[in-house]
Structure formats: C-alpha cells, structure tokens
Amino acid sequence: MNILLTFQTDNYQGEESEIVLVSMTRSNKSHDIGFMAAPERLNVLLSRARDGLIMIGNSETFMNARKGKDVWRKFFDHLKENDHIYEGFPVKCEKHPDRSALLSSPENFESECPDGGCKEPWYVRTPKPNSLCNNI
C-alpha cells in the first residue's frame, strides 16, 4: 500500500522518507523567507530524503533573502553547477527510457504525459503465445 504523508518542516524533525517533495512557497518581492532563513531548516530538508529530493518554487527569493541568503545562495549555486536545477519538472517514460520531457505548465501534463504515460504506443505480451496487445 502506498501512503502519502504531508508535514511542515517543523513537524518533520527526526523523520525520513524515500522521496521528499518540498514546496518553496516563500516567493515575494521583499525576499522574506521567514523561518526558512535559519540554516537548520535547510539541514532538515537535505537530511530527510533517502532517494530523491524535489524542490518546487522560486530560488531567486531565497538567494536574495534579506536574512539567510548566504546559506541558500551557496546551496542553489551548488545545484546549478551540477545541473540539478530545471525550468520545469523533468519526467521520463519507464517503457521508453529515451523519451523524456520537461513539464513547465499544467497543460504539459496532458500534452506530454497523457494518462500518466508518454505519447508513444507500447506493447505487452499476452498469455497467448506470439500475440501482442497494443496499449495506446
């Protein structure tokens, strides 16, 4: 059974998950990141994901924050240097590993990943020998 849990950073102390999805909701013109200015907050984010950390938001707000910008700028610079920042959400088809897309708008989900897959047809063997089932 798959279970999706949601936590605020403060309530995630001592917890760990395979994949952590972080919503960086502090995008504003005054570059105020509130409690995320504390270096300990970044430490919590980085130490909770075993297999994958996905951060969605406006890195410019954090890199130009009135307080805490030094630690966030160093972090985002490291991500950029290692090509880990995308202008969208990268996805790859499990059936067609060479088929990938960068989703940057809600419309991209339907155009690039209809029904949760890719646009290419895929085939699976049926119990009957030598027959193929086309799943489009």
Task: Walk me through this protein's architecture.
The chain has 136 residues and is an alpha+beta fold. It folds into two domains: 85 residues, Rossmann fold, CATH 3.40.50; 49 residues, no CATH class. Helix content is 24%, strand content 24%. It has four helices and six strands, in the order βαβααββαββ. The protein has a two-stranded parallel ribbon with strand order 1-2. A two-stranded antiparallel ribbon has the order 3-4. A two-stranded antiparallel ribbon has the order 5-6. The longest helix has 13 residues. The protein is elongated and about 65 Å long. The two termini are 27 Å apart. The model has no long low-confidence stretch (mean pLDDT 82).
